[in-house]
Write a structure and sequence with these properties.
single chain, 154 residues, alpha+beta, Alpha-Beta Plaits, four-stranded antiparallel sheet, 16% strand, globular, binds inosine-5'-diphosphate, binds magnesium ion
Length: 154
Amino acid sequence: MEKTLIILKPDCVQRGLCGIVLQRFEQRGFSICAMKMEKLSNAILGEHYSHLKAKPFFPSLVRFMSSSPVVLAVIEGKEAVEIVRRMCGATNAANAENGTIRGDLALSTQYNVIHASDSKESAEKEIKRFFRQEEIHSYKRALEGLTYSEDELS
Ligand code: IDP
Ligand code: MG
């Protein structure tokens, strides 16, 4: 089953929005298969945002992302990378569609609530960057009461 990495950013943690953001993924049918709170170091943020090192906002992004603990989680489910990314909405929250996490909860480009891996390759790398294999768990979502065919489980 496909996995992707999300980071609930310092603005999400400090505004008390972690619960409702995680709820959206659970309600969609995804599983949270790993989760922890951590204060990220400049070193790991430099690696995580290495594609943005040349940008003028890079120092401020690292300061922001290390300003308080964040919640890191691995989200698992059908087409998790693409669907989770779509659920987050555009980077600049002011342009994010209503109904997306950023479109419903933020207005800023930097303080945009959540990070999500942008491809299957980045998801694989990012999950390894933040989680050890033994921190990632596997379980089935309860589907009692639903009538479904075997195909619907894939
Ligand atoms: P993404 O988070 O939607 O994948 P990226 O381009 O990978 O967007 O940028 C990573 C993060 O850097 C953004 O989520 C945002 O917090 C910050 N960021 C991106 N562009 C800007 C900008 O123009 N000004 C300030 N911060 C930015
Ligand atoms: Mg990105």
